[in-house]
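Minimal example, chain plus 6-O-phosphono-alpha-D-glucopyranose.
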Amino acid sequence: DAGKSGYDHYMLKEIHEQPSGIRECLRGRLSELTGRVTLDLLEGTDWDEPVTLVACGTSYHAALFGAALLRRWGINAQAILASQFHADQLPLTSSSLVLGVTQSGETADTLRALREAQRAGATTLALTNVVGSSAARECDHVCYIRAGPEISVAATKSFASQQVALTMVAALLSDHRSRELIESLRSIPDAIQQVLDTTQARTVAETYRDAESYFFIGRDLHYPVALEGALKMKEITYKHAEGFAAGELKHGPLALVGEQTPVFALVTGEGRAANKTIGNIKEVEARGVPIVAITDGRADVERYADHVLSVPDLEPIASSVVANVQLQLVAYWVANELGRSIDKPRHLAKSVTVE
Ligand code: G6P
């Protein structure tokens, strides 16, 4: 218990460690002056597109986020579940870059995928939390996310640090230079602290602890966060939860929604994407479904929401990192209400070393 620093669970402690973890992840890796990421990585390495990211579980959601960012900045990239990765089914060459995203650096599926990629001649890069882990030792290059030890089986702070580290890797690979991006990354720790200082998530958890199932929707960079919100809910509450791309709701999941299935909708910023998600919210709201909006003060979202989980007004990357913290807290408080074994959920392991 000493290691919990007064928190009831490691998971809650680790959720609260995210501001310091992200500061550590960013330390010495950004230049305000030039707007560049100064991550010391891949220098002198010949690599070419497409970039393939492989991962499992929560790390796969971070990989989806990283691949979306790379594409946004003009690099052909895709995320593949490590268990679904087959080097012989991809056009890998000696200049291909394969990035393994793994908190522990020991996940069997991810290590197998990286080894296959290496045998096919690709350059491999491990994005990991654990210094000296198998992935760190075996890959050609390594980028540490510096989240600090994560004890709780359900990953929390490692996901936030993976998102931030992958943002830096994506900026480096695409030579994306932007002072605004750097400022925005620097603003994440304080923005997360603001979320941690509210009690909104606990109230939402108390309200919906007995729901039949939980749905999460998000578009673009919020899509991996919707998946992660649902995974967190499943892992520690043992209740059914699903994450969807907001645009997919009408292609099936809409048949499942009702009064007992709250929909958590991630919608921040202005513009077409946000407006489309508002359209999706209206569709569910019209069917009497409770809406929990994770939003940054948009009146046109709050109007349709039964509950609001606020995030500060930030650019999309930072906004996704911070919005996820609200979902971590909801999952934590629902599990707490239900008296679950939060740090060690049944049937699950922190690091899965079999394929
Ligand atoms: C297990 C853990 C998850 C984790 C996944 C991948 O299933 O319970 O929390 O996301 O492994 O782990 P890794 O260490 O490769 O990120």
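Residues 7 and 75 are 42 Å apart (CA to CA). The pocket of 6-O-phosphono-alpha-D-glucopyranose is lined by residues 56-59, 102-104, 107, 110, 153-155, 348-352 (CB under 6 Å).
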